[in-house]
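$ fold --in a.seq
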Amino acid sequence: MKTKHICHVIGLLLAKVLSSHAQTPPTITQQPTNRTSSLGSSILKFTTALLLTVATTASAQTFTLLHSFASGAGPYPVGSLILSNATLYGMTLSGVFKMNTNGSGYTNLHSFGGFAGNAAGPHAALTLSGTNLYGMTVEGGAGVGVAFRVSTNGIGYTALHYFNSRETNGASPYGSLTLANGALYGTTHHGGTNNLGTLFRMDSDGGGYTSLHAFAGGTNDGANPFGDLTLSGTNFYGTTSQGGAAGLGVVFRMNTNGTGYTNLHSFTGYPNEGAGPPGSLTLDGSTLYGMTQEGGPNSARLGVVFKMNTDGSGYTNLHFFAGGTGDGATPMGSLTLANGWLYGMTSVGGASNKGTVFRVSTDGRSYTNFHSFAGGTNDGATAYGSLMLSGSTLYGVTYYGGTNNYGVVFTLSNLPPEPPTSLTIKYLNQQAIVSWPTSVLGWTLQTNNNLATGTWGNYSGPIISNTVTNSPTQGNLFFRLWHP
């Protein structure tokens, strides 16, 4: 299934050319960045101008259904996929599976047995280290979850730790394990001193289990985390679904040795912020990106995409989910950074109200809902997890949909390259010189002389090192970079 996306204007430079015989150079002014679904007709008032735009048209992404789950082979996939070479690994409610990236070779590696010492009911992704897969379940064992290890060939399943509700332990781990310095770290939703969840550490063989932090809620602490820990140097970053000044969740930081716990941000919810972050944080340099499943200005409080600095400053809402046919609602996973865009999924909303795949720019000025799940034989429905990127292809799972309505594995391919930050223009010797960074590949320069009635066509003149020299005349001339 292919969908075509609208054009987003990400920059505008205006050179006022009084005539082709002008003795003085035109005035060049930088216009504010404006990402909209079309070029506004108001700019046509500049009747003697050379207009320069940087426009990115997202190419058509291709949706492919790789696998439909069946009742006897592990229904209802959860969390996210991980990749090793050309093999995908993941979990369903009843076990661990693997399959090839082309959809072939589906294999059940391990089936959970439920209670009486066995794991049951995972909600997150696996963690790969060498030939070992590590994971956690919310149920099973003593009734409140198990941490386990199994090899990539399905041999040697071992229960590493049985969670319980004692003060020194945690219960109900909804996230994944994070591997750092040979040890495994994670969070639990319940358990600990205050029964509001814990942050723990244990050795990769299950020994040395230690509760590093017991969440306490209130103004200065979070409560009830759902997601994974994000590692940067000697710091962990994470979220909780409750706690904080408004009781609506926090973003926190803590040292890997358990010291220095700090609330970086407390969510305030409707109408100005999100509330109840369900997933994990995505780190890029010194910027953290995340989502909440609730909050925002919409009266239905359908969730938010946000960013903030790692020191807790600069909190910014990037997108408020609105639901309906044109937008998603209630995201349950995390964001994936690819080619200058943040990709994610929502559990509901879209044309069939069965969830969406979307992308949003890292500054929040461009948002595209480019796949609406429809369910049925050929599509998924209700995404609770996150997307996994390999090359220019995104892999994901949905909880429902497919031949048996037990969920699917899918891909979205043909992602666009990273958009150029800007085109530039300068005036030299009666000529306008249009250029863009030589590192920008895969984009085509196009021109148009009338945005209202004209059409875009590929620039036919010489292009040397991403530079074009043009002799402006009376009238309008528009430039854009386009990715087919």
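$ fold --in b.seq
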Amino acid sequence: MIQHILKASMERKCIVTIIYQKGDQITKRNIEVIDIRNDNVKAFCYLRNQPRIFKLQNILAASLYRKNNDIRNHSIKKSVNL
């Protein structure tokens, strides 16, 4: 399902909201997918205001961006116990 939403973002040039885990930090980001290759997603990240590469395996959830959501991104300050 996540790959389907990311592919739709790339084809329709629309923004999606993802929950992304990097190490022990989880962030909520609004992105617009540019390309999907192998296990990497190249997208414009509105949190960093630049293109970024995301590992598909680290994307925990994805949904189409809703206007009532704030386009600014949120860092979820939460430790993840591994």
